[in-house]
Amino acid sequence: MSTRTDVLVLGGAGVDTIVHVPELPLPYADSYMIDSGIRTRAGQTGDFVALGLSALGLRTHHLDLLGEDPEGDLVRALHEERGIALTAIPQPAGTKRAVNLVGPDGRRLSLYDTSRARAADRFPEPLVRSLAAASRHVHVTITQPCAHALPVLRETGVPLSTDLHDWDGENPYHEPFALAADIVFLSATALSDPERTVRRIAERGRARVVVATAGADGAYLLADGELTRIPAAPPPGPVVDSNGAGDAFAAAFLFGRLTGRPAARCAWYGAVAGAYACTVPATRTAAIGRDELLGARVDDPGGAALAGHQVLRRAGHGPPPA
């Protein structure tokens, strides 16, 4: 079958209800007055990755389970509006949803409704095989039931990526994804030793590239055995919400990968896109465009390439070399 899609995104479709709160953690009170309003919009991890890829000009197809409900209608409308192909498998339990509490500094606390999934949920194997075979790359979210599709995806030979989000390095749920993917993204938030975790992923699984994002501290990039510290990119405006920053990072990294850039440049693209995402209010869905991404130029205040705990080389000014 000829390739018609650059990236197939598997899973992660849903809606978020956004509540801006005065602080996080939120102290107990009988009630809070939310002057900014409480808004529900389409967009969870798979939606944001698909949106980011499409905004960068990559042909994107999204596959997930959706309910015949108002939340599912919002997801369908988002994809139609942005011109992103969507294949929706009926989900009797309903469309995935979450409530995001967003603090004044842009940090968030997400409350996921796990009732909208069933242990027996599966993607039809022939459909997964067909869509993957028509794609250059598959990005697999860690939402149910994507783990069950991993063996079929691996049989196709199409390169895989995944995002483990705030994995602590131990939770067994994430391991099948970590070990099956060729490119692994995760947040360093819950990691006491990010270097140890990224190296363990590479040693135990298939990944040639592992990236642990660390917010304002940049990211750790492990590529072909060399660990590099990628500096954070300054946001192009005020930071209002960190929701979707990791998804934006992954989308921009994959854009770099699929357009032939070296790993350090891909990670720099991810840093730029992640910083941009932090300037987008949680009530909106927007992604950096190709011209903005390729035109980003800032000074690197002192990134360094690491192996073990030893500095191998010190970066000069500017983003990682192309």
Automatic annotation (TrEMBL):
Gene3D superfamilies assigned: 3.40.1190.20
Domain Carbohydrate kinase PfkB: 183-285
Keyword entries, A-Z: Kinase, Transferase
Keyword DNA-binding set for record: no
PROSITE patterns, per the entry: PFKB_KINASES_2
Example of a GO MF term: kinase activity
SUPFAM superfamilies attached to this UniProt entry: Ribokinase-like
Domain of life, per lineage: Bacteria
Protein name as it appears in the record: Adenosine kinase
Organism for this UniProt entry: Streptomyces shenzhenensis
